[in-house]
TrEMBL record:
Residues 31-125 form the Cytidyltransferase-like domain. Its EC number is 2.7.7.70. It is an enzyme of class 2 (transferase). This is D-glycero-beta-D-manno-heptose 1-phosphate adenylyltransferase. Transmembrane segments: none annotated. GO terms for molecular function: nucleotidyltransferase activity. It comes from Caldimonas mangrovi. The keyword Ribonucleoprotein does not apply. InterPro entries: Archaeal_FAD_synthase, Cyt_trans-like, RfaE_dom_II, Rossmann-like_a/b/a_fold. It holds the Pfam family CTP_transf_like. The keyword Acetylation does not apply.
Length: 161
């Protein structure tokens, strides 16, 4: 396989390269975060719409340790962080993927300082600490409509019968 076919790997951003990588991205900068354990139609619809709200989309991905603390189940995440990051980086809608290791993305959000913070309609955007934070520097928070019938947990349940 030619190296050109693997350019999506360039979207994986280690924390120490974040500042330089962000400076190269077209504004407005949109940011979202999540686990994205098994990618489904709800996710890709959501990410495409998020990308449409600005010039580039930065995705903060929960590390495996961080995801394990979210109570999604004892064997979650099923896909390890490196694999989840690669699948997301291969999407046209996503410009940059960076991991965070804390229970919430607030620390990462402070470093990125996006123009727009996005979360899916399964969250009450007004009550999120992320919303208050992004508004503190004049950014906006935006909820993307939930696509009914798509969730990783439901998919795992169906597969396991
Ligand atoms: N069906 C959906 N429609 C729109 N957005 C979604 C949908 N499912 C998840 N999202 C959004 O995608 C992001 C990642 O969500 P998450 O990884 O929790 O997906 P999930 O399918 O709900 O997983 P799980 O069932 O493991 O909680 C979140 O910001 C969430 O709001
Ligand atoms: O994939 P999820 O479970 O939607 O992602 C979580 O979102 C939380 C959200 O930002 C609420 O504040 C976040 O705190 C958590 O770390 C996951 O990213």
């Amino acid at each position: 396989m030619s190296a050109a076919a693997l350019t999506f790997l360039d979207k994986l951003c280690p924390p120490e390269e974040l500042v330089q990588a962000l400076a190269r991205l077209p504004r407005p900068l949109v940011f979202t975060n999540g686990v994205f354990d098994i990618l489904h139609r709800g996710h890709v619809t959501y990410l495409a719409q998020a990308r449409g709200l600005g010039g580039s989309l930065v995705l903060g991905l929960n590390s495996d340790a961080s995801a394990r603390g979210l109570g999604k189940g004892p064997d979650r995440p099923l896909n390890p962080e490196a694999d989840r990051a690669c699948v997301l980086a291969a999407l046209e809608s996503v410009n940059l993927v960076t991991l965070f290791d804390e229970p919430t993305p607030l620390g990462l959000l402070r470093r990125v300082r996006p123009d727009v913070y996005v979360k899916g309609g399964d969250y009450d955007i007004e009550s999120l600490a992320e919303t208050a934070l992004v508004r503190s520097w004049g950014g906006q928070a935006c909820a993307i409509p939930f696509v009914d019938g798509y969730s990783t947990t439901a998919l795992v349940k169906r597969i396991r019968g």
